[in-house]
Amino acid sequence: MSLLRRVALGFPVSSWSHQRPWCVDSLTEPGARRYFVEWNPDSSVYGEDFDGAPKDADLVLLSGPQRHYHPIRIAQFALHRFGIWCTARDPAARTDFLAQADWLRDHQRREGLPGLYVFDFPWSKYGAPAGWTSAMAQGEAISVLLRAHRIEPNAGYAGAAMRASQPFTAGIDRGGVVWESADDIFFEEIANRHAPHVLNGCIFALWGLWELWKVNPEPWMQARIERCVATLRAWLPRFDTGWWSLYSLLRSASGRPHLATLKYHQFHIAQMRVLAKMFDEPRFAAVADRWTDYARERGSRSRLVRTTLRSLPERLSGRDTVLGGAHT
Fold first, then answer.
1. Contact 269, 288 (CB under 8 A)
2. How many helices and strands, by DSSP H and E, does the chain display?
3. Is residue 17 a contact partner of residue 315, using CB atoms and an 8 Å limit?
């Protein structure tokens, strides 16, 4: 993504009123109903560039100039198309959904810790060489595979969903996707030793494991879920600047915090709304209310613009990346 596009994402001044749609349909029937949030499929500053994106011969989404298979984007495209199929029974949406589900079923790593999705390209900002893994990919894939199992119950999706849960059993140091301390655990979107603690990625991962636990209640899943929710409760002040939310706990070389773009700030609000319902936790609803107020306040908007502009020198010099000195 170009720097100009990233700046536009930082403060799309014509679209401050944007809100991320969310729903709790799947709380009553986990892994079968519409997903908890929706993605914009277009190429706007809030979009995911699904519309017009290339696909391979099997209709699987490809990403970037190199046309990579990106497990997170494949899963999100699947969930987007599943939502359309749920509401409109569009056969093309069903075909797209199952094509992505097939890829997620068939491209799990089998050796070592089973069920992992491996990214064959680097993510330099987070110090992740090719071969990195992600709790977010695991969780969103589980959500896709559970829904595919409801459509095609004899196609191996249920077993693939269970395999995709296995990386949640292990810490990053053992090849898993969980950052662990004595008291806390965090499901890492970029599961490497730098552990940037990306908020939205942890929550997407949590949702997938929660849906699987609801249909297959294994004690280890419940324990992991409860510890992660407790960590989120305790850590939410770390993601709150007092006027905006943080995307991750990574800081630039000079210590500048990693602010969420407006797009991801609205994702955070939607995720807090869902978590409040999912775990009957008023604290998450209170955070969603506070972050909603931030997005409405002119002072917070102005500060976001000023802070984003001041961050440009570090962005241009790469000092907002792990290689350039960024740290958690």
1. yes
2. 12, 4
3. no
Which amino acid, residue 51? D
- Residue 112's pLDDT is 87
CA–CA dist 320, 162 (Å, integer): 36
Look up residue 177 and give its DSSP letter.
S
Is 203 in contact with 235 (CB distance < 8 Å)?
no
Q: How many CB atoms lie within 10 A of CB 293?
A: 11
Tell me how far apart the alpha carbons of residues 96 and 320 are, in angstroms, rounded to a whole number. Answer: 37
Are 188 and 202 in contact by the 8 Å Cβ rule? The answer is yes
Going 268 to 269 to 271 to 272, the CA torsion angle's sign is positive
* Dihedral sign, Cα of residue 62, residue 67, residue 71, residue 73: negative
Phi and psi torsions of 165, nearest 5°: -80, -20
First to last CA, the chain: 23
Q: Which residues of 21-44 are buried (b: 16+ CB within 10 A; e: fewer)?
A: ebbeebeeebbbbbbbbbbbbeee
**Confidence (pTM):** 0.96
Contact predicate 82/144, CB 8 Å: yes
CB-neighbour burial class of residue 213 (10 A; exposed 0-12, middle 13-18, buried 19+): buried
Q: In angstroms, rounded to a whole number, what is the distance separating the alpha carbons of residues 235 and 115?
A: 29
Check residue 158 and give its pLDDT: 98
Q: What is the pLDDT of residues 295-328, one digit of tens each?
A: 999 999 999 989 999 999 999 999 999 999 999 9
